[in-house]
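Quick one: structure tokens for this chain, please?
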Amino acid sequence: MLSAVGVTADQPASVFGNRSGGTAGRGRPTGVSQVRFGARLPAMPLTLEEAQTLIAGAHEQAAQLGIRITAAVVDEGGHLQALARMDGAAPLSAQIAESKAVGAALWHRDGDSLAAVHRERAGFFAQVDRLVRLPIMPGLGSVLIRRGDAVLGAVGVSGAAPEQDKECAQAGVASLTV
């Protein structure tokens, strides 16, 4: 259960203060005292436990293949939820795995499909790539995480050959019961 900020989705935007930027006479913005600490935030589409289970499945597949990888799980908005680098995996693999996952989540396409968009519409792809916080890495090794038709996020894997990255990502997703 999260309670760090403690604001519920059904609270009005004014809970953070009035729109005029005034103060309540005590040097703090009006409305700050209205924040209810300890209130529940809306649930994330993919829990931390599910993200960690997915990473464990990807790492297990990598161990069976005798390779060392990093797996990153992002939510539907491309925000990092969990990342784990196996002992011996290349340091840069962490950034590459996250970038693969971000691209898949934001475009709602697996890595190989995203690579096709990159090839066919390079100019457009380059402009969209500039809109996100990380460079988008098209290619094998990123797989969407779905519940029915809804995209919950994506997993990105890096550290081995592209086909092996994809195999580990798929094994991670298969380990979930979403």
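Residues 1-42 form one domain.
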